[in-house]
Amino acid sequence: MMVALLVAENSVRPILSRVIRGLLKWTNVQTVVLAVPARQLKDFAYLKSPTTEVIPENEIIPGYSLDYFADRLGDRRARAGWYLQQFAKIGFSRIAADNQYVIWDADTVALRPIVFFEGGKLQITMSKEYHQPYFAALEKLINQRRVLRFSAISQYMPVDASCTRKMLEKIEQIHCKPWIDAVLSVLPLQGDSEFSEYETLANYMASEYPDRTQFVRKRWFRYGTDICGHINLPTNSELEKIFRRYSYVSFERHHHSRTKHAIANAMLKVGNILLSRHLIRDERDATASTCQHSDQLR
Asked: What is this structure's pTM?
């Protein structure tokens, strides 16, 4: 049974019904597990169904709390929740009932068919992000340099639980402490974002299990909030029409302005035209072990 893990809190509640419907319609996910702060369990109870479970975050990473991360992060304590959701996504590998699951950002709606596993391989979507502190943490954690010339930060990632558990065991062996504390111990705390679960997992899998990993291109739109807002979203079918040339859309909750709204609308209009005329390359596979995609760096 394919499970999708979403780590959520109250700010994403307005869009979660769209997110869940999209996953169940366009992927082979059969069960959505929502991990939420224990104090917010009642707020998410309305989403429980035969296909949706709601659990407290500390069920995934027992012994750790938002306050614990805030204390460890010092001046960066405002980022405690951001780190907690990453640890929960990775830590789920130790309690998952099946070996395969997918971590899916709770602000992202699927619009077209998406395959997570094919031919025994994880289908990981490439993106164009680049943030050097993520790879500094990777090297300190498992003595491994970046092996991919593109990013894997693309709103979701299929996970091989057994491989991920081996990565966590490796971290614990190297640092002689629980893996979460090991991650926290290597952060210089000079910036707000110094660890990425996506970049860490993707580079580890590409290095250690290239035969189980395949990288693919997907067309997705990041600025959904600038097009539709965040509170009263259109229905799933309406979203599929608005973003008709994309596989999924994200509704990130960042600062928005009239200028960003105008730019996002222009990007969507141009993107839909170009994609409809096939002027953008089709989705294609790339091997996990090569470094031939330097054009993805920025």
From this structure: 0.88
